[in-house]
Specification:
The protein is of the alpha+beta class. It is built from three helices and nine strands. Strands 3, 4, 6, 8 and 9 form a five-stranded antiparallel sheet that branches. Helix 2 packs antiparallel against helix 3.
Length: 151
């Protein structure tokens, strides 16, 4: 089972864990990306994400297919939050269940790296001094001039 989503709602790790759980599996590996409170000496108050949602979901489905080609896994869940994501809240989650940990760990690492490189999602950091900065994902092949850095 593959589950992908782009949502404005907070990410529920409990729900995703239940979604990928299987009696056939001895491992569930997870990457959870959260908003940190600082970047290069600036105090971050929140992140704001935008996405080209249809393409984002399509690219996430491709990631699931690529994971299945490389590792023996049971279930995959990939979720990215858009909109405002406050400090300490999750913006992205990737969970993979497999019979053994080595497959799920490798699949999760591949999944987050591939997501960063291919999924059209953009991030703006807002700072406590009132400034903000759009962050280009230098790993992403869809990088455009949609948002210029503004400080």
């Amino acid at each position: 089972m593959d589950s992908v989503d782009v949502t404005t709602e907070p990410i529920s790790v409990d729900h995703l864990t239940q979604l990928v759980s299987s009696p056939k599996c001895g491992a569930i590996s997870m990457f959870l990306g959260t908003t940190r409170d600082n970047f290069q000496g600036k105090n971050v108050i929140q992140l704001e994400y935008e996405a080209y949602e249809p393409m984002a979901r399509k690219e996430m489905q491709k990631i699931c297919a690529e994971i299945r080609e490389q590792w023996s896994v049971e279930n995959i869940a990939i979720v990215h939050r858009i909109g405002v994501v406050p400090v300490m809240e999750a913006s992205v989650a990737i969970l993979v269940s497999s019979p053994h940990r080595s497959e799920s760990l490798a699949a999760v690492e591949y999944g987050i790296n591939k997501l960063k490189a291919t999924v059209p999602i953009w991030k703006k950091e807002l700072y406590d001094d009132g400034t903000c900065s759009w962050k280009q994902n230098s790993e992403c092949c869809h990088v455009s001039n949609k948002h210029a850095n503004t400080s």
